[in-house]
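Field reference: sequence -> structure
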Amino acid sequence: MSDHIALPQDPASRASAIAAGAAWIAAILMVGAPVLNFFAVLLFGRGFAEASMFSQHLGVVLAFSGAVMASATRSHLALGARSREIKGGHGLREGFVLSTSVAVETVWAISGLSLALLGFGDEKVGFLRVSHLAWAFPIGFLGMAVADLAASPLPFLGRLLSAIAGMGSGLLLAGGSAANVAYAFGSSASFLEGWAALSSVVATWAAWPLAVLLVAAGLMGAPLFVVMAGLAAALFVKDGMVVELAASESWSMLRSANVAAIPVFTLTGFLLAASRSGDRLVTLFRSAFHRMPGGSVVAAVVVCAFFSTFTGSNGVAILALGPVLAFAISKGEGMAEDKAQGLVTASGSIGLLFPPSLAVIVYGVTAQFVYGPGRAIDLMDFFRGGLIPGLLFVLATIATGLVPLWGRGKRPREEPATKTGRAMLDAIPELALPLLIALLFFTGSAGVFEIGALSVTWVLAWGFIRKEYSLAGLLAAGRRAFPVIGGTLVLLAAARGLSYFIIDAGIPSLVTGFVTTWITSRHLFILALTLVLLAAGCVMDVFSAVLVLAPLVIPAADLYGIHPVHLSAIFISNLAVGFLTPPVGMNLFLGSYAFGRPIWSVWRSARPFFLVQLAIALAVAYLPFLSLSFVK
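Structure field:
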């Protein structure tokens, strides 16, 4: 394979390529600093005191670089789909969505610029000024606006009009932030105060219409971060505050250690998928269980759990390995092809409860923010709470897959023990990775972010030793991983800004009062929460559902005496099952795409697994000891 990389020609691809270069530089430094520090401490007893903090700030650069790539490839998380072509009357719809996105990105770019200029003084991290790193914030949002315009299928005139409408609307709402930027450069023109006052008046009188327009844009395909960031901006300005308050909260969250772990673990998962790790694990588990009918079933479920754990996504295992795993089950066990495909589809999310699952990290960060500093919760407790529920999901899915194979009387094909031994030797790096992570996690030898950086280094080192990575292959892995990283983190940033306003405005208390008025039983509350989470998992990704619902649900659950770790397990379990819930569960769409079958056909094949996993989710919800057994 040639490593020649063709230069992109169209503007969107060029924007994506520039952002990818920045993302790679940030990722290399972000991973390298904590790894060097870890081994320096291990070997010499001392390291670089600010290595982790330096890397966590670089995570913001990586986040916004990836977000620009997601805009250029139109891959931000969204409720509705946006066509890559304009047909019929879709031009007006695309123009509305595009102008809305540009408007919100303009507001946040100006507020981010104000934050970078005025928010940090002489504060440093390592040898760099924090204010210099904070320029990633305004440059990132501006880059997303440019990438959105470049990637739009609208003709030039349509894009120009959308740019004018979007930037004009954004500037109208960003008067206060623009005044702060001007003050930072020594300007105090009187019109700036009038501009800021006009923004406040517009937001005050148009808050509800703006909210309706943003929700409508979201349903038409605008990224979820645009909806959340737009709502946050409108609400802050309406109450006479500047958007910098939301931007400051977002910045603080993005540079925290737990959130900084998200990009490194995501990169670990995509690097694993870019190697032959999946093939080695399938070979190992098939050979290890060859004496029992259903060895391939065990292999497929465990491999899917492995990849969903490390990528934080239910999509990678189904799309990258689904056809291979289904073929292995069908051929090795004589299982009907459609049933094998249903098993793989149902296994796409069962690793979301195991460390270092990004879903658990996102929930933990959100929960800590909602509970407040007065109630510290160890992120490790959330991972401990997911161990038994996660194992139950895996074992129940395996058992359901084995049921059709029982009683056949077919003796499995014997394989020499040397083949199993060889497969185990080949898969040692993959087997050692979760063990090393668990050891470092639960002994406290390293923090969650440092463990993520070590995981990337481990996977890369073995990939190069085995000569499985080419330059083109690594660049391709980055093109797949960075938009996912950026799309996830910019969504978290927008949600944190909105959550800050929601909590400050006392909205969770209102929700709690309403719930406790109409639902007097803890068991009934858990049932209602289960139904809500299943519905949310059906139409939203796990991160969006956590960010939207957790700030509203946590105070009510606390009033009913539900332990924070138990609530975490309830959340993630039900959202994972929601991915299989018809008619629009995400795994059903992915299975349909991977196997070339209609969605309802995939659902019929996955239905037995859905029912079993739903039973496990209900058991987790109503039996707290399942999630609290290992919690102190």
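Note: DSSP finds 28 helices and two strands in the chain.
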